[in-house]
Amino acid sequence: KEAFANADIGLQGFSPVVLVEEEVLQRGDKKLEVIFEGHRFHFASAADRDVFAANPGRYYPTFGGIDVVQLASGKTVLGEAKFSVVYKNRLYSFVSAETRDLFVAQAEPLSDFDIARGGIDQVARVEGKGEPVGHYGISAIHRGLRYLFVTELHRERFQGDPEYFLNAATGSAPSHSTDQAPVKSEPATTTPTSER
Q1: Which residue, 16, 65, 145, 180, is most buried by CB atoms nearer than 10 A?
Q2: Its pTM surpasses 0.85
């Protein structure tokens, strides 16, 4: 069991916040840990941990770190942090420099494997505001898939009760005592101004 004790540590213990924001590898501290989507992530500082907790969609690796080039060929292989790339405000990890370079060369057809429901903002859809496609920089992760939103407020509302918005969008919403799904209280975040 000792051999598998760290199998659930994301990015081999490197801080996802430092990797995305500074594009360098910095080992996280196991005392600064957040569990998200079944993975344990370590952070270089308490501030980085809090930034991740407030907006995990920005820092959570695509498919939990599975190499999307391998996935496209039917293989599920976990990538390594040292072969990571940030593209469309999302972190991708690869098993080697070769698969990373293949992704960079043809990123567009591979980049949206994890985008749910065509990228349509589910909050806007449920509220009768059409079906606008959200922004890559404003996203939330739910059950391994990435949902995009047109505003930070929509992202926050979705995170407060994702099942409500997903079920309501398909016509099987649970009843609520209020007209709106509850808003999850979380620290304010800033919207990224550019997409990489």
Answers
A1: 16
A2: no
